[in-house]
Amino acid sequence: MRLLIPAVLSGALLLTGCSAGTAIEGAQGPGLAKSAPDPAAGARIEGVQTFPYVTPDHQAKDYAYPQKPPVGGDHWPPSAGGVTGWLACGRYDREVPDEFAVHSMEHGAVWLTYRPGTPAEQVAVLAELAGVQRDYVLVTPYAGQPGAFGATTWGAQLFVESPDDPRLEQFVRAFAGGDQGREPGAPCAGGTSPEDAQAALDAVSSS
Fold first, then answer.
1. Who's near 105: CB < 8 A, 6+ residues apart?
2. 163-171: long-range pairs with CB below 8 Å, 24+
3. Which 3 state secondary structure label does DSSP give 192?
4. Eight-class DSSP state of 87
5. pLDDT tens sequence for the chain (207 residues)
6. Domains and CATH numbers, the chain
7. pTM confidence score
8. Pairing of strands 110-114, 137-141
9. Distance spanning both ends of the chain, measured CA to CA
10. Which is deepest, 17, 23, 32, 164, by most CB within 10 Å?
11. Read out DSSP for 29-66?
12. Three-class SS of residue 196?
């Protein structure tokens, strides 16, 4: 089902991105010129699937999502289990908990993903796209996704077979830092690390 997502707030907060842990520092290159996001234009990119309504509730629990990666949905609260409820944007060399990445997307983040085992040089090409809006891009591997490379944000998703596909940059420019989530302008920086997020999720799953 197709949906034109409303136009966006101009500008985004200038914040620091990566957290410690498995974030790969300095791997994203010098970055690209920033541009104001335009989710309505992003929804018209060839191949983008849009989703008309995604539930937004906050609960500290393990969720099963219908998409891989999820395009939104119920997710970890702003603070629970002793951790901040969203992931700090940046590039990570490990898979991350969906429940926390979804919260980052609620703040306007774009989640760029690739299949585990993808050659490092291709991952570097994908990660370079974070330079468009470094404060609102998350880059991680994701097992089981239907395409080689994915771009996901709240309510929209694209899969391509090459990290050089120009639609990936179009997607990042259109959505990163945009108002397609429920909390436009909220930071992606200042979030928790994947390790702390997974520990909090494991704790509630085993209780």
1. 71, 72, 111, 152, 153, 154, 181
2. 163/114, 163/122, 163/123, 163/125, 163/126, 164/125, 167/45, 167/46, 167/47, 167/48, 168/112, 168/126, 168/129, 169/32, 169/129, 169/132, 170/42, 170/45, 171/42, 171/45, 171/48, 171/110
3. strand
4. B
5. 333 333 332 333 222 333 333 454 333 444 577 778 999 999 999 999 999 878 888 888 888 899 999 999 888 788 888 899 999 999 999 999 999 999 999 999 999 999 999 999 999 999 999 999 989 999 999 999 999 999 999 999 999 999 999 999 999 999 999 999 988 889 998 899 999 999 999 998 876
6. 31-51+76-184 (3.40.30)
7. 0.85
8. parallel
9. 38
10. 17
11. -S--------HHHHTTSTT-EE-S-----B-SS----S
12. helix
Please name the helix (run of DSSP H) or strand (run of DSSP E) that holds residue 128, with its range, or none.
Answer: helix 120-128
Which tokens in the block code for residue 164?
């050089």
DSSP lists the bridge partners of residue 137 as: 110
Q: In 10 A of CB 82, how many CB atoms?
A: 10
- Point out which residues pair with 181 in neighbouring strands: none
Both structure tokens of 31: 């970055």
Half-sphere exposure of 168 (CA within 13 A, CB side): 26
CA nearest neighbour of 135 among 176, 84, 80: 176
Contact 88, 192 (CB under 8 A): yes
